[in-house]
From TrEMBL, chain A:
It comes from Marinobacterium iners DSM 11526. Transmembrane segments: none annotated. One of its GO terms (molecular function) is branched-chain amino acid transmembrane transporter activity. This is Amino acid/amide ABC transporter ATP-binding protein 2, HAAT family. SUPFAM superfamilies: P-loop containing nucleoside triphosphate hydrolases. Belongs to the ABC transporter superfamily. Residues 8-236 form the ABC transporter domain.
From TrEMBL, chain C:
SUPFAM superfamilies: P-loop containing nucleoside triphosphate hydrolases. Keywords: ATP-binding, Nucleotide-binding, Transport. It comes from Marinobacterium iners DSM 11526. GO terms for molecular function: ATP binding; ATP hydrolysis activity. InterPro entries: AAA+_ATPase, ABC_AA/LPS_Transport, ABC_transporter-like_ATP-bd, BCA_ABC_TP_C, P-loop_NTPase. This is Amino acid/amide ABC transporter ATP-binding protein 1, HAAT family. Residues 253-262 have a biased composition (Basic and acidic residues). The keyword Nucleus does not apply. It holds the Pfam family ABC_tran. Residues 7-248 form the ABC transporter domain. GO terms for cellular component: plasma membrane. Residues 246-273 are annotated as: Disordered. PROSITE patterns: ABC_TRANSPORTER_2.
From TrEMBL, chain D:
The chain crosses the membrane at residues 6-26, 33-58, 78-97, 104-124, 153-172, 239-264, 276-296. This is Amino acid/amide ABC transporter membrane protein 2, HAAT family. Keywords: Cell membrane, Membrane, Transmembrane, Transmembrane helix. GO terms for cellular component: plasma membrane. The lineage of its organism: Bacteria, Pseudomonadati, Pseudomonadota, Gammaproteobacteria, Oceanospirillales. One of its GO terms (molecular function) is branched-chain amino acid transmembrane transporter activity. It is found in: Cell inner membrane. The keyword Nucleus does not apply. InterPro entries: ABC_transp_permease, LivM-like. It holds the Pfam family BPD_transp_2. The keyword Transmembrane helix applies. It is a multi-pass membrane protein. It comes from Marinobacterium iners DSM 11526. Its main location: membrane.
UniProtKB/TrEMBL annotation, chain E:
Belongs to the binding-protein-dependent transport system permease family. LivHM subfamily. GO terms for biological process: amino acid transport. It is found in: Cell inner membrane. GO terms for molecular function: transmembrane transporter activity. It comes from the Bacteria. Keywords: Amino-acid transport, Cell membrane, Membrane, Transmembrane, Transmembrane helix, Transport. It holds the Pfam family BPD_transp_2. GO terms for cellular component: plasma membrane. It is a multi-pass membrane protein. Its main location: membrane. The chain crosses the membrane at residues 12-35, 67-87, 99-118, 149-168, 189-218, 230-254, 266-285. This is Amino acid/amide ABC transporter membrane protein 1, HAAT family.
Length: 236, 376, 273, 309, 295
């Protein structure tokens, strides 16, 4: 297979939290401009996969290749500079900073990130509350801030963990539109989603995880055909 | 006739705290020297030394002494520096009828309020300091005094005794500032002294407190405005002071190493072993131990009552004890020295600290025996 | 009004440094209902919850519980009065056993919680009741397990069992299904339905399926104020709600679901008849 | 369970025969500190709050008992009870002011309160200031058992220790203890279940303070002296060290830790190494924190679990 | 002499000024402590020992290497800061993920070791360090004689405190710092080298103590226990100011110096107690401290 346009390639990734072995040999690859989701039940190891890519787990082995750079032995703070943006599950808003400081916090890793104006336009709630302490925002507002924050940094590979969690349906809908726009701009997105209805129409491919393994890879066009299978994995 | 076949002396001192240089390891060395000079045995029994660090804490000191006398057959306890520790330790020795050989404590309580038939207090005490330092100055016309006093028993005692001396000689005390033990910044107290209009500012403190208070006094220009008298200045403290400010200050001491050939001879031996010149407590500890061992020899037993009786009968006489007697209350009375701290240009080297201004005869320095402490 | 309200708020207002998060809210929760509070992000739902449980102090306004003014009461006192809240993040005691978790809640009413001189086995008489409660949420077989080892969904179930132990008149649930997989969502929704018998539930929930399935009555908040109220069909048909909250896609889907529900209801009526 | 009981019986037998082989005053001191550490551990290990001011209670117990023995002609058991009550009362005041805070904040608040107490005792005339309260009589227990005999004293201290230890053991394994455990696990949840968590912490703090006072009262009788050392913040640090060395949150840990530290100090202060006491204690702190956070008893338990559990 | 209501006004002014001088010392010391606590959540019990180390380093620099005061003012904080960096790197970092109480105990141990070591090496009588020639002498004010050196201390400390406050509260670097202490993992994921920042911050906080040590050397005697005496007071100041509040630490430091000065004048016996008394009162009224945010 040609590696042209391959943004992220993971081979035999194992990850550990202390004694517990969470990921048991993950393989996946994502091409430029693709939007790929990771599906699975609670505790399947989807968040852990993202965290492992960012080197935020206890220990990891295998290979993670980002933009042609092997990162398995790279310190955590260098990984972002390869163009990665990570939006964590628990949002990670800083209480010691106000909303705007939170938004401006991540250093730009590429020059073509979205401007603050654009982001405020997309999330008017944030503009309204911009001098408020970060963690004083409502749950949903924090979620918006967490996403806006990495869009500004110009990262071109996005790792998004449950970004629709706790958001009102209108916003979820808007987010879907944003993701499609980002994809059109050529950004590569790895999405962990519980909300299958949200993910299905926008994704190119799906990986299904169970107990720290990838058990299935489904192309967007196979979705109809494999609905049954997916239901057994996800228990829908 | 020696109990349990040996004579054991415990040396209790502050080995690591602010008084470590004043007695500490040096007292152990001095007592070892005494035992060696005595020949290592008495009445055929070996003389042993144990030592311990009281950490300047009365509870630690009293616990150690208790262990020594109850559990380790110690016959006498020497060293004994901080008055607080000595007070607690002598309670235990007295109860156990063991002899306390107090070398460096300043308080006069051990032969007055807290006197005991088993206390022997050697080198000096606050009364001698006050008589030695204060009286000449009042006589010289310095009538108004201000005290900077260490805010604990020793400081209060020193201030009290000195106040008495001042008043008896026609002077007056215009104020006092009580500084907590271990104060590092004396500037507030110095300011109070400055605005008091006194002739003399007396430092009724010891060790690092004296050094620090003198330092602040010079910094705020107090030394140019009035006289400063250090009531208790040990040689190591004097060495630590800035010679420019300390030079010319007068104080009283029980011993000075460079006084005459006898003192120099002993001090040289001490210095070879210890590294530094001896402070008065070191010499006192040696002299007192020697006297104790001689008394055992003379009494033919190490039994405390007999030994203490002999100690009081025999006249101490060596390089340290000049014109000396050990009185019935346990107070050793001997010549004290009124000294002046040398100015930088007067010093040969770093050990050349004092020049002796006058010798104060023991009976003028120390207070008489109290009737209730007259142990025969 | 004469309806039987468990909980009422009168002109409830909460301001944060000039920002009004809750604006003159008059909420009425009828006894025995499952009452859902929905609204866009930042509408003030969590803040209302915090006011009700006294994690925040209202700027002005009153809170009545069974007609009694509970505005000045402290959080623990509110809980003792019968208003119990479940948390968004799972709230269990991780290193106690599952049984002990429930027992802690039962113990409070025993009145011996300050008895440090009595042996712990005086608590054993609570075990039967605890197991009963665990059984009601399907956890009886895990009674002796360490709570940390439970799966996410089971922890939620345990939390609900613990809450039930307090026999609350009014349960407040803040996004009870947040972060759950489909399977667990169903499980918890069923559970809520089950435990709602004989008590009142007020919940905040973004999952419209759950809301539509459970809620007897819905209050929609927007910008701190009540936008509209009613049952699910009414509310979801309101164009303002669609615009502010549901969005077009969701709304279309909702319409389908509503129709489906209407058909189901009709069918059910038919079979009953 | 049987094994644990056997262990307790063995330890008790050891404690009863020990004074025939070792210096009883030393053993009594050890027991006093063991009780002090156990009391402290009730807060740290079972409530999860590190008090850096427990010396205040040790000292208060000591001073009050000492003063009563010297001035009131009371029998020692009464003086000890009153000392304990006084420390408990002080603990109640401290607790009211501090239990609202957590973690490091709690540690700092208790430290500062204890400093206040330290300076009060430093200035108050009845304590003897830097000199300490010297020459406290041991008196006659119940009016007829002469405590100036070291053996009698020791067995009395042993009895006091056992009572204190039992109180702690009972507290931990009581309905109250169960609530404490829940609070430590998840405080917000405990609040939402209707528990006034601060009241529970406060009661625990008061019990802990009273028992620390009991230790101090007894210690004063043993040494016939109450001094500032017992109220100094270093003492608050030492009790942390003892607990840490023995094992935080284990019931026997503090006893073992106190044993190790007291023995070590006893050995060091008497010997050549006196100078190094601070350095060695410092190293023990550092090593414990870096390598043996579960302490001696904690590590043994872990080992036991690995091999037999 | 000017008096008002029986109070000697000149004496009072003098005490106020002296209080302010002490306060600027407190400010400098509590600033370092507050930075380390507020940003790293580490209670650095070794801060007092580092202050002592700073003073000793200045003394050693002068006596062993002939390095004068002004050079020491630059070199010593760097050296002490480096010691702090080593300490963070090899002792504190391994336990960074444990309960913060462990770092308190660890630094307490380090403080004991350092103090014990210096006592062992230099005894405890203290060393003297002379005031640099340029700052000898003083100014005669109507109510007191103000030594130039003390004036220098006030100025230097206010400048250092102000700059530090600005850097932490108002710059991007400060934002990184604050965020990095809250959620280091996430900040790493954003591409920021948090461990480095943490180490440098710790070094900086400790370096401030070193600086205070150098400044203290000429006026206090350089002794092993100089740090442990002042440490507890400084802790109280940080608690009063509101733990973690940088500005609070600075202002409270100055304020407490003045209050202490007044107490020394009106009721000297309470001068050691007054700070703790203030602390208890403040905690009763505002549990988070004067400038602290409620947790
Ligand atoms: N910090 C941690 N320490 C130990 N185990 C962890 C940690 N974080 C997660 N785990 C465990 O790793 C497993 C995978 O967790 P992960 O968060 O990756 O799941 P997920 O697929 O994202 O599910 P969820 O829907 O809950 O987010 C779970 O069993 C979880 O208990
Ligand atoms: N402590 C606070 N200080 C300042 N503003 C606050 C505070 N708490 C909440 N807010 C603001 O009040 C508004 C309402 O917040 P709330 O958390 O109640 O929203 P919500 O309806 O629960 O939203 P979501 O669905 O996103 O959780 C938000 O705009 C939020 O920023
Ligand atoms: Mg996840
Ligand atoms: Mg909310």
């Amino acid at each position: 297979m040609s590696t042209y346009g391959e943004k992220l390639r993971i081979d035999d990734l194992h990850a550990f939290y202390g004694e517990s072995h969470i990921l048991h040999g993950i393989d996946m690859n994502i091409m430029q401009g693709e939007l790929v989701t990771l599906l699975g039940r609670n505790g399947a190891g989807r968040s852990t996969t993202l965290r492992a890519i960012m080197n935020m787990v206890g220990r990891r082995t295998g290979s993670i290749n980002i933009n042609g750079n092997e990162t398995i032995n790279m310190p955590a703070h260098k990984i972002a500079h390869l163009g990665l943006g990570y939006c964590p599950e628990e949002r990670g808003i800083f209480s010691s900073l106000n909303v705007e400081e939170n938004l401006l916090l991540p250093p730009a890793v590429r020059s073509d990130g979205m401007s603050v104006e654009e982001l405020y336009e997309m999330f008017p709630n944030l503009y309204e509350r911009r001098y408020s302490q970060g963690t004083r925002l409502s749950g949903g507002e924090q979620q918006m801030l967490a996403l806006a924050r990495i869009l500004r940094s110009g990262a071109n590979i996005l790792l998004l963990d449950e970004i629709t969690e706790g958001l009102a349906p209108v916003i979820v809908q808007k987010l879907g539109e944003v993701l499609i726009k980002l994809k059109e701009r050529g950004l590569t997105i790895l999405l962990v989603e519980q909300n299958f209805r949200f993910a299905a129409p926008i994704a190119d491919r799906h990986y299904v995880m169970e107990h720290g393994h990838i058990v299935e890879e489904i192309q967007a066009n196979e979705l109809e055909a494999k609905t049954e299978l997916l239901n057994t994995y996800l228990g829908v | 006739n020696v109990s349990d076949g040996k004579v054991k002396i415990g040396v209790l001192a502050d080995m690591g705290g602010v008084y470590a240089d004043i007695c500490g390891k040096g007292c152990v060395t001095a007592i070892e020297m005494a035992v060696e000079d005595f020949g290592g045995t008495v009445l055929g029994a070996p003389i042993e030394i144990v030592s311990a660090d009281d950490q300047l804490k009365p509870d630690v000191g009293s616990a150690i002494v208790r262990k020594w006398v109850e559990n380790e057959q110690v016959d006498a306890v020497g060293g004994l520096v901080s008055s607080a520790v000595v007070g607690a330790a002598t309670k235990v020795t007295t109860e156990a009828k063991k002899i306390a050989l107090i070398s460096t404590a300043a308080s006069n309580a051990f032969t007055t309020k807290q006197c005991s038939p088993y206390n022997v207090h050697w080198t000096y005490n606050v009364v001698a300091l006050a008589n030695g330092t204060v009286k000449p100055m009042v006589d010289a016309g310095k009538k108004k005094w201000f005290f900077i006093t260490a805010d604990y028993a020793f400081g209060h005692a020193l201030e009290g005794v000195a106040t008495k001396v001042i008043q008896e000689n026609g002077g007056e005390v215009v104020g006092a500032a009580r500084a907590p033990l271990g104060t590092t910044d004396f500037s507030s107290y110095i300011l109070q002294a400055q605005s008091s209009g006194a002739d003399v500012v007396a430092l009724a403190n010891a060790g690092g407190d004296t050094v620090n208070s003198l330092k602040a006094a010079s910094e705020f220009g107090l030394t140019q405005m009035m006289d400063v008298a250090g009531l208790l200045v040990f040689t190591p403290n004097a060495q630590a002071m800035d010679a420019n400010t300390a030079g010319g200050m007068r104080t009283t001491t029980g011993f000075y190493w460079d006084y005459d050939d006898q003192t120099r001879a002993w001090s040289k031996r001490f210095m070879e072993r210890h590294g530094d010149i001896p402070a008065m407590g070191h010499a006192g500890a040696y002299s007192m131990t020697m006297h104790y061992l001689k008394a055992i020899e003379a009494a033919g037993t190490d039994e405390s009552d007999a030994v203490i009786k002999k100690m009081k009968e025999m006249k101490p006489d060596d390089f340290f004890s000049r014109n000396a007697t050990l009185r019935s209350d346990g107070r050793m009375v001997h010549d004290m020295y009124y000294v002046e701290i040398k100015k930088p240009e007067e010093r040969r080297d770093n050990n050349d600290i004092f020049k002796v201004v006058s010798v104060i005869p023991g009976d003028q320095a120390f207070a008489p025996v109290l009737p209730e402490c007259d142990f025969k | 009004m004469s309806a039987d309200y468990v909980l009422e708020t009168r002109n409830l207002v909460k301001e944060f440094k000039g920002f009004t998060a809750v604006d003159d809210v008059n909420l009425q929760v009828t006894r025995g209902n499952i009452h859902a509070l929905i609204g866009p992000n930042g509408a003030g739902k969590t803040t209302v919850f915090n006011l009700l449980t006294k994690f925040l102090i209202p700027t002005t306004g009153q809170i009545l519980f069974n007609g009694r003014d509970i505005t000045p009461m402290k959080p623990a006192a509110i809980a003792r009065a019968g208003v119990v809240r479940s948390f968004q993040i799972s709230a269990v005691f991780p290193h106690l056993t599952v049984l002990e978790n429930v027992r802690i809640a039962l113990q409070r009413k025993e009145g011996n919680s300050f008895h440090f001189w009595r042996p712990q086995n005086v608590l054993n008489k609570l075990n039967d009741r605890a197991v009963e409660l665990l059984d009601s949420v399907g956890l009886a077989e895990f009674a002796d397990a360490q709570t940390v080892d439970l799966s996410y969904g089971r922890k939620r179930a345990l939390e609900i069992a613990t809450t039930l132990a307090l026999e609350p008149e009014l349960m407040l649930l803040d996004e009870p299904t947040q972060g759950m997989g489909h399977e667990d969502v169903g499980l918890v929704a069923d559970l809520i339905k089950k435990v709602s018998e004989g008590r009142t539930i007020l919940m905040v929930e973004h999952n419209l399926h759950v809301v539509s399935k459970l809620a007897d009555r819905i209050t929609v908040l927007q910008r701190g104020a009540i936008l509209t109220e009613g049952d699910y069909a009414t509310v979801s048909a309101d164009p303002r709600v669609r615009e502010a909250y549901m969005g077009t896609a969701a709304s279309e889907e909702q319409d389908r679901a509503n129709e489906q529900a209407a058909r189901d209801a009709a069918a059910a009526e038919e079979t009953q008849a | 369970m049987m094994k644990v009981n056997k262990l307790y019986v063995a330890l008790l037998v050891l404690a009863v025969v020990a004074p025939f082989f070792l210096y009883p005053v030393f053993l009594a001191k050890l027991l006093c500190f063991a009780l002090f550490a156990c009391a402290f551990n009730l807060m740290l290990g079972y409530v999860g709050l590190l008090s850096f001011g427990h010396a205040a209670f040790l000292g208060t117990g000591g001073y009050i008992t000492g003063w009563l023995m010297m001035n009131s002609g009371m029998t020692p058991e009464l003086a000890i009870i009153l000392g304990t009550v006084a420390a408990g009362a002080l603990g109640a005041v401290f607790g009211k002011l501090s239990v609202k805070r957590e973690g490091i904040y709690f540690a700092m608040v208790t430290l500062a309160l204890a400093q206040l107490v330290f300076f009060i005792y430093l200035q108050a005339p009845f304590t003897g200031g830097e000199d300490g309260m010297q020459g406290v009589p041991r008196g006659n227990l119940f009016g007829f058992i002469d405590l100036s005999d070291n053996m009698n004293m020791y067995y009395f201290v042993l009895a006091v220790f056992l009572i204190g230890f039992w109180v702690i053991h009972r507290t931990i394994h009581s309905p109250f203890g169960q609530v404490l455990k829940a609070i430590r696990e998840n405080e917000a949840r405990a609040v939402s279940l209707g528990y006034n968590v601060n009241d529970y912490k406060w009661v625990a703090f008061t019990i802990s303070a009273a028992l620390a006072g009991l230790a101090g009262s007894t210690k004063t009788l043993v040494f016939q002296l109450a001094s500032l050392t017992d109220v100094h913040w270093h003492m608050s640090g030492e009790v942390v060290l003892m607990t840490l060395v023995g094992g935080v949150g284990t019931i026997l840990g503090p006893v073992v830790g106190a044993g190790v530290i007291v023995t070590m100090q006893n050995y060091l202060s008497g010997g050549e190494l006196g100078n190094y006491v601070h350095i060695i204690m410092g190293f023990i702190f550092v090593i414990c924190v870096l390598a043996f956070r579960s302490g001696i008893v904690g590590e043994l338990q872990k080992m036991w679990k690995r091999n037999f559990g | 002499m000017a008096t008002f209501l029986g109070i000697n006004l000149f004496g009072l002014f003098g005490q106020l000024l002296v209080g302010l001088i002490n306060g600027s010392f407190y400010a400098l010391l509590s600033l370092g402590l507050a930075i380390i606590f507020g940003l790293l959540k580490i209670i650095n019990f070794a801060q007092g020992a580092m202050y002592m180390l700073g003073a000793f380093a200045a003394w050693m620099a002068l006596n062993y290497f002939g390095i004068n005061y002004w050079a020491a003012l630059v070199i010593v904080p760097l050296v002490v800061g480096f010691v702090g960096i080593l300490m963070e790197r090899f002792l504190i970092r391994p336990i960074a993920n444990e309960d913060h109480l462990y770092s308190l105990l660890l630094t307490f141990g380090v403080a004991l070791i350092l103090q014990g070591l210096f006592t062992h090496l230099y005894g405890s009588s203290g060393m003297s360090y002379t005031i640099p020639d340029a700052l000898r002498g003083g100014t005669k004010l109507p109510f007191m004689y103000l030594p130039d050196y003390r004036l220098w201390i006030i100025c230097a400390s206010v400048v250092v405190c102000g700059l530090t406050w600005w850097m932490i509260e108002k710059t991007k670097l400060g934002a990184y710092l604050r965020a990095g202490t809250e959620n280091p993992q996430l900040m790493q994921a954003f591409g920021i080298n948090v461990p480095l920042i943490v180490t440098l911050t710790f070094g900086f906080g400790v370096g401030l103590a070193g600086l205070a040590g150098v400044m203290a050397a000429p006026i206090y005697s350089v002794s092993p226990d100089m740090g442990s005496n002042i440490l507890i007071v400084v802790f109280a100041i940080v608690v009063i100011g509101g733990m973690g509040s940088i500005g609070g630490a600075i202002l409270t430091g100055l304020g407490m110096g003045v209050i202490e000065g007044l107490t020394k004048y009106f009721y000297p016996e309470a001068s050691n107690t007054v700070i703790f008394l203030v602390m208890v009162i403040v905690l009763l009224v505002k549990p988070a401290g004067l400038f602290g945010k409620e947790a």
